[in-house]
Amino acid sequence: MARVVVDVMLKSEILDPQGEAVLGALPRLGVNNVKSVRIGKRVEIEFDDAETAAAVEEQSQIIADRLLANPVIENFTVSVPGEDAA
Amino acid sequence: MSSNMLDTVGVADATPDEKQPYAELGLADDEYTRIREILGRRPTQSELAMYSIMWSEHCSYKSSKVHLRQFGQKNPKTPRLLAGIGENAGVVAIDDHLAVTFKVESHNHPSFVEPKQGAATGVGGIIRDIIAMGARPVAVMDSLRFGELDHPDTARVLPGVVEGVGHYGNCVGLPNIGGETVFDPCYQGNPLVNALSVGVLPRERLQTMQASGIGNVVVLLGAKTGRDGIGGVSVLASATFDEDDDSDSRPSVQVGDPFTEKLLIECCLELFDAGLVVGIQDLGGAGLTCALSETAAAGEGGMHVDLELVPLRAGGMEPHDILASESQERMLAIVAPANVEQVLARARRWGLLATAIGEVTDTGRLIVDYHGQTVVDVPPESLADEGPVYHRPIAEPNDLGLIAVDRAETLPRPSTDEDIRQTVLDMAASPNLCDKSWITEQYDSSVFGNTVLGAPHDAGLVRLDERTGVGIAISLDGNGRYARLDPYIGAQLSLAEAYRNVAVTGATPIAVSDCLNFGSPEDPHVMWQFERAVTGIADGCRELGIPVTGGNVSFYNQTGREAIHPTPVIGVLGVIDDVARRIPLGLGSTGDTIALIGATAEELSGSEWAWAMHRHLGGVPPKVDLGHEMRLADLLSRLAGTEQLSAAHDLSAGGLAQALVEAVCHSGMGANILLPEGADPFTYLFSESSGRVLVVIPRGQELAVRSACEQRGLLITPLGVADASTDGLHVRDRFDIGRAELEAAWKGRIGAVLGE
């Protein structure tokens, strides 16, 4: 099974209001030793079994770059879990 | 000098010959020489960053200043004007107690790079200008221009921009009460995102940006400072996009947080009401650099700041990064020492950071220390007020003569009634005239419960005071095609249209804000267009008796050598004593008379018809008669007061045909029309002669309205009746268009093209 994981994070210099909100809420839990919170998203994609690894890799890059991430303000990484084992 | 050594004033003194990247920061040779003369040494890195930002086109208005002076010189004197050009936003008195502040500003380049965040921070920025005057923001509007509707990049830019405008406005809780959306290929690589905000204040709450009172404390309020849009002002706003802009050289963009902005609004208003601040300034395009130098220059002239006290969001920020950062949702307050504790406490209660970072001094210098070492020591007015002033070369474009004789009046026209009928439908479905509710439905237009008229009315209308019913109307209009044909007339046509749109609601126009979108000022032809447009607006406002209260200039709107059409966007603000007496859009009730006020000439050049049907732009734009506009506005305000009109609608792009289509689509009525005898039906329906309004008169009021028109020398022509039993638009002896067919053409076009 060709399973691909795309992780999308805001670039480090970009404000993350959601992360800031979580950071601001932590003291209410009594947690006072957190410096920074950044929130991103993880996308899991499953390709048809017949796809070649090269095609999966290429298409994942396209999907991530054009649809899942906004490259102007976000970075993404594409990884294939279990690739080493295969 | 090693890169990790702090470039202090002492270091600058010791290393006078250090090479500095002033050219990369957008400073010219002579500008750099002048900085060295002002300081008597080379600038430090931080100073260089500050000068490059403050002397950029965006902040210094160096190319436009000599022309913008006309507004001050020609502005009519009015006791209503409480604060004008040079302030964060103009303030006009509404009555003895209330005042209103409004301003329109561009966020064009950031919105092209990152449409959603660019547009969102544009809205956020203009809202802070309104807060800085002491007002509670009560509404926003947006004027948007994109490339062709069916161009692939429009499918990227438009939904992003609309999402951004809606996201920020909706989250911060301000109604969007209208605006305009225009498509033209000239905006393909340079969309225009102009945002307007309006606020209301008790007259005595008016704030200034002065850092006055020696010993007073400088407090930074709001969000932390991060690496947002560093160099954004000098790089983003003053550089033309290159065709081969690659992702690595993309300037960093700012991301806003509307919820923090909401807290800023409430916190600032509380501080104002409690009388706790002496001066206030928003942090906009040039961040701390601009706020520090402007407040210092406007006040006692001296300020001392300890930069390491600024709360940071990112690690490794150098002093010049902190000074240049464009992080959103920040304000700078000047506070008497005795009140500092209270200000900090109240900010904490609102969940906002507030930090004392410096104080007002009598040194006449803006001094910034970083961990005890001085990195900036400059006269603040050299940054804020004494930037370079250019008299750029001006040259009339060579093609104007050719364009003027290429008149749209000679284009082939639909000749049969059937052809005219089809043209009405095709025009109604064209991108510029079709229903924009796909866009406006994404905006909250009614939060606060004071919106009386929003999109798609000619102007937005909000109630200011529930007890008296007093309200304001605002319209935002531009027409780049007319301005391309003749920038002087084109600018006045936009002014006249915005003025008329306000008048059509029954409000009386009182003030103007403008956003001037042009190509590169280094192009003498663009400079000529700019000079003509500014002169047109200044002359027009003088004649109309309403002052320009502020606005903004956006240059370098071009891709490669292709500049956009010169696009002055004009916002007109009007006041109405009782919003219950406003005149709506529509057709009134069955039996009401439909009539046209104003004369129709054969004026098709620059029209929507010539563009939509022939892709033609040439000839001479319609004539402007501002005296006529004033009589028309006086008439409409009178008839609103006596409730002698059941509806009214401005005639603009698309002419009478489009006004009828919209009136029918916005009411349950049909329109039963008989075109005047002898009138050429095509010209009468599609000409864009200025100064015309479609009115609907309740039964029994026809004579009174006619005589009110005649008293003012205004031509009124009965066109027919509103009739619930008529299906859609019926033009007697010519053609019928049923409601279903009309709505099918007019509605849903934008969503259909964008695939939603």
Question: Topology, please?
Answer:
The complex is a heterodimer of chains A (86) and B (756).
Chain A: E1 2-10, H1 17-25, E2 41-47, H2 53-68, E3 74-79
Chain B: H1 9-14, H2 29-39, H3 45-54, H4 57-60, H5 65-74, E1 81-83, E2 90-93, E3 98-106, H6 108-113, H7 115-132, E4 136-146, H8 152-172, E5 176-183, E6 192-202, E7 217-222, H9 232-236, H10 258-273, E8 279-282, H11 287-298, E9 302-306, H12 319-324, E10 330-335, H13 340-349, E11 353-361, E12 366-370, E13 373-378, H14 380-384, H15 400-405, H16 417-428, H17 437-440, E14 451-453, E15 460-463, E16 471-478, H18 480-485, H19 487-504, E17 508-517, H20 524-544, E18 548-554, E19 558-559, E20 562-563, E21 567-576, E22 593-597, H21 608-614, H22 626-641, E23 647-650, H23 655-665, E24 670-673, H24 681-686, E25 693-697, H25 702-711, E26 716-723, E27 729-731, E28 735-737, H26 739-746, H27 749-753
Parallel strand pairs in B: 4-5, 9-12, 17-18, 24-27
Antiparallel strand pairs in B: 1-2, 2-3, 3-6, 4-6, 7-10, 7-11, 8-10, 9-11, 12-13, 14-15, 15-16, 16-21, 17-21, 19-20, 22-25, 22-26, 23-25, 24-26, 27-28
Helix pairs in contact in B: 5-20, 7-8, 7-10, 8-10, 19-20, 19-22
Explain what this protein looks like in three dimensions.
The complex is a heterodimer of chains A (86) and B (756). With 86 residues, chain A is an alpha+beta fold. Chain A has a single domain (2-79), classed as Phosphoribosylformylglycinamidine synthase subunit PurS (Mth169, Chain: A), CATH 3.30.1280. Chain A is 29% helix and 26% strand. Chain A is built from 2 helices and 3 strands. Chain A has a 3-stranded antiparallel sheet with strand order 2-1-3, with helices on one face. The mean pLDDT of chain A is 89. Chain B is of the alpha+beta class. Chain B contains 27 helices and 28 strands. In chain B, the strands form 5 sheets. Chain B has a 7-stranded mixed sheet. A 7-stranded mixed sheet of chain B has the order 23-25-22-26-24-27-28, with helices on both faces. Chain B has a 6-stranded mixed sheet with strand order 1-2-3-6-4-5. In chain B, α5 packs parallel to α20. The longest helix of chain B has 21 residues, at 152-172. Chain B is globular. The termini of chain B are far apart. The model of chain B is unreliable at 232-251 (pLDDT under 50). The A-B interface holds A 10-17, 20-21, 24, 70-73 and B 113-114, 117, 223, 226-228, 230, 247, 250, 252-257, 259-260, 313-314, 327-328, 351.
